[in-house]
Structures are given as structure tokens and as C-alpha cells.
Amino acid sequence: MFLNDTLALWSAVSTPPLLATVAAEYSPIILSGVLLTLVTIFIASKIGSEVAKQLDFPPVLGELVAGVIVGVSALHLVIFPEGGLAATDSLLMTALQALNQLSPEGIETVFESQSEVISVLAELGVIILLFEIGLESDLRQLKEVGIQAIVVACVGVAAPFAAGTAGLMLVFHVAAIPAIFAGAALTATSIGITSKVLSELGQLKSKEGQIIVGAAVIDDVLGIIVLAVVASLAKTGEIDVTNVIYLIVSATVFLIGSILLGGFFNKAFTSIVAKLKTRGNIIIPAFIFAFFMAFLGNAIHLEAILGAFAAGLVLDESDARDELDELIKPIADLLVPIFFVTVGARADLGVLNPTVPENRAGLLIAVFLVVVAVIGKLVTGWAVFGIPGVNRWAIGVGMIPRGEVGLVFAGIGAASGILDKPLQVSIIIMVILTTFVAPPFLRVAFGESVETAPPIESTSE
Amino acid sequence: MFLNDTLALWSAVSTPPLLATVAAEYSPIILSGVLLTLVTIFIASKIGSEVAKQLDFPPVLGELVAGVIVGVSALHLVIFPEGGLAATDSLLMTALQALNQLSPEGIETVFESQSEVISVLAELGVIILLFEIGLESDLRQLKEVGIQAIVVACVGVAAPFAAGTAGLMLVFHVAAIPAIFAGAALTATSIGITSKVLSELGQLKSKEGQIIVGAAVIDDVLGIIVLAVVASLAKTGEIDVTNVIYLIVSATVFLIGSILLGGFFNKAFTSIVAKLKTRGNIIIPAFIFAFFMAFLGNAIHLEAILGAFAAGLVLDESDARDELDELIKPIADLLVPIFFVTVGARADLGVLNPTVPENRAGLLIAVFLVVVAVIGKLVTGWAVFGIPGVNRWAIGVGMIPRGEVGLVFAGIGAASGILDKPLQVSIIIMVILTTFVAPPFLRVAFGESVETAPPIESTSE
Fold first, then answer.
1. Which member of A300, B23, B355, B440 has the greatest number of CB atoms within 10 A?
2. What residue of A is the nearest CA neighbor of B117?
3. How far is A267 from chain B (nearest CA, A)?
4. CA neighbor of A312 nearest in space, from A133, A124, A143
5. Which residues of B221-253 are buried (b: 16+ CB within 10 A; e: fewer)?
6. TM segments (chains A, B) (predicted)?
């Protein structure tokens, strides 16, 4: 309603109609749909994250599960026109239709347009999330934990990727592209979840904690490169070695280049921010940079999130960084849940119903992925060398939670159809389970003593 | 690119296509378009607001003028498919088409979808702006300045509305609906601009300053009721007294009801916020409330912004208010400029070219509107009674700047066609000029002494 509300006035006033699109006629109702969907998403995300918090699980998992509940698997409040779903399948759209006395064609137009808007908002949410993760990542911390973190990260990417892809192809006879995609989804450790859990255990500053966080940071970068490689690979429909090399090189050049040019960008950013005297003097230049890098990441055939992550890494070094951290939080708090809830909402858990014979393969795959995901990260503890008495179990367990980047893969799978539904849902289950088991396992791995340690305040989920 | 990027993978993978819409095929390019347009809007808004600040004008005017420059009047970077404009008219779309080798039909689909997304973002921006204005408005302050502010506000609404509407109908032979709409656009004083200018003059806490701010707050409410009444009026195409009464009653009941129930909402909000322990514990409940009230405002045939404003007024009383004020700022800083820049971008200043004979009426109207707008507010100073020695000139001049709500009217006019183009642009020129003249006039009205007064820090534009 509002600007667009009055677009409906065309019919009432005696000026010639100037609208080019049929969709614009329904704009007020599209905005109504967007507002109702956002309210639903926000309520779901808050209930989900609070319940998860009460149960001592990461809040982000609660948002995902809440998304499953309001989505296509259960309540049918937040659904998308994929998989042949229509407006009549959505309770919100049915309510809007009754409220505005719309024709069946009219509500379909509204449904498709509002879904497009919610999808773009979710994409802006994940762009902002990766920008924030980039800001939270610390290049200098990496250099201190150095070679240990790099080895742990590389083993933690290679082992589950190789075992997962090979197992899916050899045991489950999955085609190469979806097998590689699912294998890639096993790679990235969640820096947010990992650092949050460590801080809750008071282990963030321990030797093991530093290696885990350092490796999780590298993992994040590797995971995004793997994501870009795999997603671009899938575009060609086959494994094109030249393309893989091009992508690895361009991803590396893009990231390293951004970081090397970071000094220049930082000086420019800091001096621009210092000169600006109106509201938004920090946040608007930061988002100009983040959104432009996101656009650029796409333009060179990588991903928008890679650009946003690079932008975050670069501005991480900026003098205005602390202020930017504070300012980006409410924006991320508002937009990021749209991404997680819609990822959950798109996941059709109905395919895991074991009474349907064709679903049983999906359940087997989920069990296989969870086992590979856990063992593939546990072994990283034994890759650590040169530190006597290091708690190898703690490091291995600390690398287990997947979270954001794993969900990003699942989200891409859900939206694109690279992964069939059982495989998509298996990945989501893998992400949920690995993240669920990490907190209690970490508590055990670090020993009983930490249970009485006071939690260190952390701002990250 | 990202979630939707991979929607384009449909063609590359061997699963059956599940997409319901043609638009989804172009989703990655739609996101590219949205990112590029947002970057353009942000750059324009920042340059505009900084230049305005340098020249001692309110930053919001700079954003509007910058919008005019990037919009349909000049650079053709940010345009909308109204008035028969196509993707080929947009420089950004032409660049996207070349970059992605799109067909002419493809780029039109992208143009229409990304315009829809930008329009919704602009609408969310103005919803958030009015929510913020509601939060900034202070019911208790109103009670202190009391009857004086109410009289000034009522005279300041009635005088320019009556003179403007009557003049347009009698002198310029404008039809009733657009004349009433344009007259209504003359009513609302900009609380943001007014309080900012007063604070810069160090007069925010003076007797005159308190009356001006109090009256501006009431004006804001009256202006929004007038907006709702006029917009709803226009839907029926004629003046329906029953409808007007219904709207005045429902607007009043909605606002007063929200405020009376405010105590309940406040307690509920405060206790919910206190119980929440995850990120977004304040901002998400606040936006659930604001967006739901916006939806409700529309559902009872008022406006979304009225609901958002009421939500702001209610939460203004909340214990969490100071924190909420801080958290909403970066969100508003990011989304509100999208509204102002697109309002400017939609305004086709070409119709004011005096060498085109049919444009001359528009210029005459603009001169008339400016004169009525200034005189209609100046007289309010003489409506003040019972305060000996009050600076009547200062109060009258302080009520002159229009700003937000005036631009909202212009935006509705631009989007809806209730106002023909000369009338739309005349309103924008009226808003620009009244806001431009206020700061220097106020300085003169308060006398030379205030020029040396230290400015009080104000967070409002």
C-alpha cells in the first residue's frame, strides 16, 4: 500500500493509463503480501532462535527449523512458485485473495511478484551475512596461528569432500555434478557457530580454540572458493578442467587482489567516511563497496557472496571497522533471518517420509552424509603437528558444525535443482545434525572442568 | 547472483524444469540489476546530501535533486516502466543486456522485475521513515506546548489547503480531485527538517522552538490523516461525504486507538524484548509490530505509512526506545534514501521547459503553489495568543519547510497519475523551495544574535 497503493487508482481517475506492466496494477497487494510474509518470517525466526537458545543449540538452527515449519513441509505460509506450487497452495495468498477479492489470475500474479521480492530480499540477506562474516574474519589472527590452522583447514576440506563425493558416486550411483556439489557442501566449517560455541565454553582464547577459529576462517574462504568453482562447474554441465583452473585462479586473484588492494580501498574508505557529514556516512559507503563487489563477483562469473565476503575482509582492516560492525548488526539482524527461514521453507521434508519407498534412498544418503561430515572433520585433529599435548579431539569436534556456508549450498540446491530433493534435504539434515552434536561433544572433549567456566560474551551467533 | 544465479542452471542440468515463471529464468540478472541500481542510488544520495550539507541546505533535498539527476530528467540511470519507458531507455539495463547477451524481450522482463523490487524497497524505505518519525515524535511534548501548538498546526493545515485547493480550481481550472490532492500536499510541516534547522540555530528549546516542534508533530499527524483521506477519496473518483467521515473516523480511531492501547503494546513489547536472548531481540519485534501495523493500516483502507507512524508513536513510550532509536538508524540510513532518490528520479523536470507552450501553465502553478505554501504557513505566527512578546515571524517561518510528507504526496502523484505531470513537478518544486528558503529566513527571523549560538547536536535530518 502507499506509493503502489495508488497505482490502483488508475482506473478511478480520468488520465490515460501509463503503466507498462500488468503486475503494477497489483502493486498494493504485492506490498501487502511482502509485509505479511516478512511478519511471518520474523515471527518464525524469533520463536525458532529463542527455542534453540533455550535448548542450548545455535539460534540459526532454530531459524532453519522454524522455516521448515512455516514452509512447504508443514504450514504452507511461506512458499515459492517452484516445484509447481501455486498461490492456492499458500495460506497467506489465499487470505490476501479473500481480503482484496482478487481473481485467480490476479492472485497468481501477486504470488509470483511477491515471491520474486522475497527471494531478492533473501539474497540481499545472504550477501549482507557474508559481508559481516568477512568483517568478523581477521587476517592477522590467521598469520599468528599460521601453518597449523592451514593444515587443519585443508584436511578438513579435502577429507569430507573426497569421501563424500566418492561415496555418493560409487555407493549411491549419484551423477558427478550433484555428487561433487553435495561433497562440497560438506567442506565449510561455520565460523559463526564455532566461535560462538567456543566462547560459551570459555575456550575461545585457548591453543585449541585459536587453531579452530583460524582454521574455520580459512575454511570459510576455501568453502566459498569451492562453492564458486562447483556452482560455475554445474553451469557447463560437465567437469571442464580449463574452467576449474580459470575459476580457482580468478577466485584467488579476486580475493587476494582485493586484499592486496585492501590498503588502498581502506585509505579511500576511511578518508571518504571522515569527509562525510550527513547521516549514513559510514553505512552507505560500506554498502556501495559491498554491493559493487557483489556485482563484480558475479560479473566475472564467480558469486555475489564472494564479492561481499572480499569486501568485508578488506574493510575489516579499516579504521572505521568497529563502528561499521555496530551499524551493520541491526541490518543483518533484519535481513539475514529472511535467508535462513526461506532456506528452511523451501526444504520439503516430506521426501524423507520412510513409508514412501522412493524416499528410502534419501534417508540412507542423509545417514551417509552425516557420518562422512563428522569423521571427515574429526580426523583434522590428528593433522596438527609440533604442539605437544594438544587436545586433538577438541580440535576435530570443533570443526564439525557446518552452518551458514553449508546452508548456502543447500539453498542453492533447493533453488536450482542441481540436487534432487532427497539430496537437498539430506544436506540440510547433515547441517542440522553436525551443528546439533557439536556443543555437547565439545563440552565432553574439553573435559568436565569447562562446564563451570564463565561464558565469554560473544556477539556472533 | 547466488540463490537465483543458480536458477539459470536449470538449462544445464538434466532435471525437469520446475519453475512457474519466466521471470525466474532471469533472476541472476534481476539481482545484478537491483545491485547496480542500489549502488547508483546510494552514490547519488550521498553526493547529493553532502553537497546540500556544504551549501547549508537539508541533506534530504540533496538526495531529491540527486534523484532528479540520475532519473528520467537527466542521466536515465534510474528509471521506471511508467509513462511508456522501456529497458532501452535505461543506461543500466542497456549495460546489463550487453554484459549478459540478453534478448530484447529478456531485458524487458529483467527491467520490469527489478523495477518492481526497487519500488518495494522504496516503499519499505518510506514505511521505515514514518516509523522513525513516529519514534521521534513525542506525545508528552505535545501536552506541554498544548493549545498553542494545536492552533498553529490547525491554521497551518487549513490555510494553505483551502487557499491552494480553491486557487487551483478557480484560477487554474484544475479538477476537484487533483486540486484537493495538491492542496493537501501543502499542509504538512517537515518535523525532521524543522527540528534540524532549529537545532542548528540553537533555538530548539526556545518558546518559539517548542511551539514550532509541537505544531510540526501535530501537523505530521494531520498531514497523514489528510493524505489518507485524500488518497482514499481519489479511489472513488468523487467526493463522498460518508467516505470522508468514515476515513476521518477510522484514521482517528486507528491512531487514537493505537495510542490508547499503546500502554498495553508497550508492556507486551518491553516484556517480550526482556525475555529474548538472541540477536535482533529488539529490532525484530519492533519490525514485526511496524510491518503488521503497516499491513493493518492498508487492510482498513488507510495507508501503510499511517500504520508505521502509529507503531512508532506507540513504541516511542517504550522502555527500549533509546536502544531502538539507535538500532533503527542504520536501517533507515540504508533504505530511506532509496525512497527520496526514486521520488526525484520519477520526476520529469522536462515538463517545466518554458519553451514548450503547454508547459507554461505548469510553471505558473509552481509559482502559485510556492506563494500559497509560504503565506499559508507565515500566517500561523499570528494565530498564537496569550504569549506576550512571542516572535510571530519566527514561528511562521519555522512552519514553512515541507519535506518528507510533501514528498510523499509528490511520490504518490508521480506513481499514480492523480496529478498530471506539471502539477507533480510543481509540488516537488514547492517542497524544494519552501525547504530551501526556511534556513536563511529562520536565521533572519530569530535575529543576528543566533548566528553565534553553538549548534545543538541533532540526530535527525
1. B23
2. A117
3. 18
4. A133
5. bbbbbbbbbbbbbbbeeeeeeebeeebeebbee
6. 30-48, 60-80, 117-135, 147-170, 176-199, 211-233, 245-265, 286-315, 361-387, 393-415, 427-446
Q: How high is the pLDDT of residue A330?
A: 95
Buried b (16+ CB within 10 A) or exposed e, B70-93: bbbbebbbbbbbbbebebeebebb
Q: What is the pLDDT of residues B310-345, one digit of tens each?
A: 888 788 777 788 889 899 999 999 998 998 898 888
Rounded CA separation A94/A111 (Å): 10
Between CA A143 and CA A135 the distance in angstroms is 16
- Confirm or reject contact between A39 and chain B (CB < 8 A): yes
Cα-based distances in Å from A287 to A337, A365, B35, B195? 19, 40, 10, 28
Which pLDDT value is given to residue A239?
59
Cβ of residue A101 closer than 8 Å to a chain B Cβ: no
| pTM as predicted | 0.80
**A189 touches A171 (CB < 8 A):** no
**Residue B143 burial (CB count, 10 A):** 10
With a CB cutoff of 8 Å and minimum separation 6, the contacts of B98 are: none
- At position A427, the amino acid (one-letter code) is I
Partner residue opposite A39 with nearest CB, options B10, B175, B292: B292
Domain extents in chain B: 5-118, 120-452
Residues of B with Cβ-Cβ distance to A461 under 8 angstroms: 278-279
B264 touches chain A (CB under 8 A): no
Asked if A98 reaches chain B (Cβ–Cβ under 8 Å), the answer is: no
List all residues of chain B from 159 to 188 with a beta carbon under 8 Å from chain A.
175, 177
Kindly report the nearest CA distance between residue B300 and chain A, in angstroms: 10
Name which of A6, A298, A334 is nearest B415 (Cβ-Cβ): A6
Q: Which residue's C-alpha cell is 491552494? A: B164
Q: Report domain B120-452's class.
A: mainly alpha
CA distances B413 to A423, B1, B193, B313, B367, Å, are 51, 34, 22, 26, 19
- Average pLDDT of chain A? 79
**Which residues of chain B are modeled with pLDDT < 50?**
1-23, 448-461
B259 touches chain A (CB under 8 A): no
pLDDT of the residue at A60: 76
Interchain proximity B288–A333, CB inside 8 Å: no
Cβ contact B343:B403 at 8 Å: no
Judge contact between A331 and A325, C-beta under 8 A: no
A290 falls in which pLDDT band (50, 70, 90)? very high
Per the model's pLDDT, the better-predicted residue between A10 and A156 turns out to be A156
Query: What distance in Å separates the CA atoms of residue B193 and residue B382, rounded to the nearest whole number?
Result: 22
Arithmetic mean of pLDDT, A72-93: 87
Q: Mutating which of A124, A278, A328 best tests the B interface, going by the most B Cβ atoms within 10 A? A: A278
Q: What is the C-alpha to C-alpha distance for residues A314 and A265, in angstroms, rounded to an integer?
A: 7
Report pLDDT for A282: 92
| Across A367-384, average pLDDT | 91
CATH 3.30.43.10 fits A129-452, yes or no: no
- From the list A23, A46, A292, which residue is nearest B285 (CB)? A46
Using CB atoms, which residue from A46, A276, A330 is nearest to B46? A276
Cβ atoms of B414 and B178 within 8 Å: the answer is no
> Per the CB < 8 Å rule, is B330 touching A99?
no
Per the CB < 8 Å rule, is B295 touching A32?
yes
Query: What gap in Å lies between CA A291 and CA A289, rounded to an integer?
Result: 6
Closest-CA distance, B206 to chain A, in angstroms, reads 25
Contact A330 B333 (CB under 8 A): no
Distance from CA of B158 to the nearest CA of A (A): 24
Calculate mean pLDDT across residues A407-428.
75
Q: How many CB pairs under 8 A join A and B?
A: 321
